[in-house]
Amino acid sequence: MDVLLVDDQHVVREALAYALAAQAGVGAVVQAGSGREALRAQELHRCHVAVLEPSLADRSGTELIRELKAIAELRVVVLSMHRDEFRVAEAMRAGADGYLSKQSRLADVVEALRTVVRGRTAVSPDVSAAMVRALQRRDAAARGDMVAALSDRERQVLRLLAMGCSAKEAAVRLSISVKTVETHRARLCAKVATHSVADLTRLAVRSGLVEA
Questions:
Q1: Which of 32, 46, 127, 132 is the most buried (most CB within 10 A)?
Q2: What pLDDT does 212 receive?
Q3: What region, left, alpha or beta, does residue 38 occupy, with left being phi > 0 and alpha being psi -120 to 50 degrees?
């Protein structure tokens, strides 16, 4: 299997690429340091599976997963330092086939790649609990949770606002303009029928986007 490895931390990416290339069954390991590079690399190489760090400067992980999968059939394993249920649910909703923490061993990463290529889902043990909570959140949303009506970006904006970020701070974190943040905020407020920051915070806590 050919592997697309996406991470903007050069040392981490290069070390993992070197280790993966030595594994049985692994063919080419194509590296990308940004979302743009990843899309260009996948257009050119059509790898079978991607290992993706979701916190990239030029694209959100959810956007990149969808864009990569739109190019050609591809399995995606998210490799992240974050293990909370919001991020796990966000990645899986976007189409990720696996989710591993960066505490995982190389053998776990290799086994996850082989697992998702066979059409199954792979999660590391320290992500499993978050996975269960994420599924519970999804089930709650299916029963009419207002957050289910929000887009991924609106949920991200809601989470940052509930954490006390200003529109400018949210724009910096999401690598978008302040005007775009304000547009997303207006839309989410319309969907949940409130403009109160306190109400938005309570909604974010109830939905598990932030901790109480």
A1: 127
A2: 60
A3: alpha
